[in-house]
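thread from #wetlab-drylab

HS: before we spend reagent money on co-crystallization trials with iron/sulfur cluster, can we at least see a predicted complex? here's what I'd submit
DV: go for it
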Amino acid sequence: MSETSAEFSRNLRAAGVVGAGGAGFPSYVKAQGKAEFALVNAAECEPLLKKDQKILEYFPEQVFDGLELLMAAVGASMGIVGIKKKHEKIIPRLKEIAKSRKNISVLEMGDYYPAGDEQCLVYEATGRIVPPGGIPLEVGCVVANVETLYNAALAPRPVTETFITVNGGVKKPATFRVPVGITWREAVELCGGFTVKDPAYIDGGPMMGKVQTDFDLPVVKASAGIIVLPKTHPLIVKKAQSRPVFTRVGRSACDQCSFCTEFCPRYLLGHNVQPHRVMRTMLFAGGPEHKLHSQYGLLCCECSLCSLYSCPEGLHPREACVSAKGDLREQKVGFKNSQLNTGKKPEVHPVRDFRKVPVSKLVRRLGLDEYNKAAPWNDAVYKPGKVKILMSQHIGAPCVPAVKEGQRVEKGAVVGDLPADKLGCPVHASIAGTVRKVNDRYVEIYA
Ligand code: SF4
Ligand code: SF4
């Protein structure tokens, strides 16, 4: 590792920078690789979320600064900002900034889902296909989210705030920056409160996000936003269905039409993902309690396109793939030691371009047209009375509290940390105040 790379990586870890697109992968790890291309994932393809667009509209220089630091660290000779063509208001400014920097360009993409899938972006930007079960580094690419690069530009300043969109059933949908550790209830109040009765929400966007009903859960560093909907909305009902229910329905209703496979973005990239075959295993299994041992779900990226768009019967092929992956994990089977790992080079499906799913069609199918609001930027500074800082806000080992009850902390102080040899990074106080509660899951600070 070069000195530039080592220093950038140290700064990212100290600042607690993690993938802000939802995954929370510690960014310092990516900075230690070698790549020809550094790609900015600005596709933001989760319908109704707007925070990446707003960061690029209001703080584009910082994102480019972060990109340049990443390029220098990994030795990339080319930086590419992948953004959807529909953001025509922002693109001219991005192109102008790109011109003033070295070897950076802007790639305009179509408005389809999932344009922001890391492997789809790599293919669109470079024409390279990430090998099955592999990562972008294997084809000379490193991919970073917009907010991640914004935070990287400010490192080693600790990540104490996060950008979020609150959209759907709230009075004034908005995108803003809030201290990490406030509750989603506070975020909804900042948007004027609920407009729907008996609300639930999807944390992280309608496609890949998780249904939640507890609005007192804290916002974390990797949070991208929530969509508030009535608990009875078909999308909430469908996403909340349990394994015994979707298995029972899937066994009786799947007609093996294979639309789920034909539209699958990873299948279209040439990876051997075949959700209809996983569904077939469900048909053959003795009942909902039986394990699914189909390997055809192992390369599923869990984008939900099959369950929420492709399947004409409204079934759950994505959840079948996720279940199969879990069941196979118990048998210690992953893609690398599966029968599908043939070493064959993937080839893009010849009609891939014609099977891209337009986001407008998807929003209609999801029943979200009436909830799809502009969510404009709101630059009000929110000062909460207390925050709850979770010890686990990233992929890897959780932090261990580094403060005691009654201790006074300043904003940016480390409140949870972990040994340097473990995957993960520290978490910081997002406000100045007194630590009132400490346990192995969180630290609570009162202003
Ligand atoms: S699209 Fe639906 S009905 Fe068709 S094979 Fe897939 S799960 Fe079965
Ligand atoms: S969720 Fe469905 S469409 Fe998406 S990658 Fe998995 S199998 Fe393919």
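DV: The longest helix spans residues 60-74.
HS: ok that's useful, forwarding to the group
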